[in-house]
Amino acid sequence: MAIKQQRGWGLIGAGAVLAGVGAEPALAHHGLGGRLPATGWEGLLSGLAHPVIGLDHLAFVVGVGLLATLVARPWAVLLILGFGVSAALGTGIHLGGYDFPGSELLVTASVVLAGLVLAWETHGRPALLLALVLLAGVGHGYAYGESIIGAEPAPLGAYLAGFTLTQLALSVGVYSLFVALGRPGWRRNLGWLLVGAGLVFVSGVFGA
Fold first, then answer.
1. Measured distance CA(137)–CA(157) in Å, rounded
2. Is 136 left (phi over 0), alpha (psi -120 to 50) or beta?
3. Is 29 within the bounds of a domain?
4. Average pLDDT, stretch 54-61?
5. What pTM was computed for the model?
6. Which of 41, 67, 100, 106 is packed most tightly, with the most Cβ within 10 A?
């Protein structure tokens, strides 16, 4: 037990170090260096890049793929697709001019929560996992919306398609790889890494 606890703390520390290299506020990521996409191609490229260049987004997308391995396949499909739909909804909320207080904190805290669920291997509560993923998806999508406010319909639609494709590809890829490897111990270890990374992201929100 002591060895497992030491390993957990070590992995949390490692995750914190890795996240600290490139951590920044969730709303600050932008695929075009701050420039608004002007064409459909620019919108698509910006959307494809956004979930990857933001470490907080990337960490949670990976987490969704891992969370899906905790539940039966029908629930796994719902988790992955639900995250994509709720993220698009969150972007729509932002573009509609609605405020979402605490969205940046939700984005970062979702990484910690996903990590804890994975580290503790919380099986048997698929509905609760789905609720967590859907709520987090709205927060992540709201952050994505910051990069596209004021864009024309063509780049806007391409941007939505881009980040949805990236999220689906990454989460499905992580899920499929983990199922193929069949290494449950890795899931716990990756969970602790996400906890460490998420704590750095959360501290960045309060330190901004």
1. 18
2. alpha
3. no
4. 94
5. 0.89
6. 67
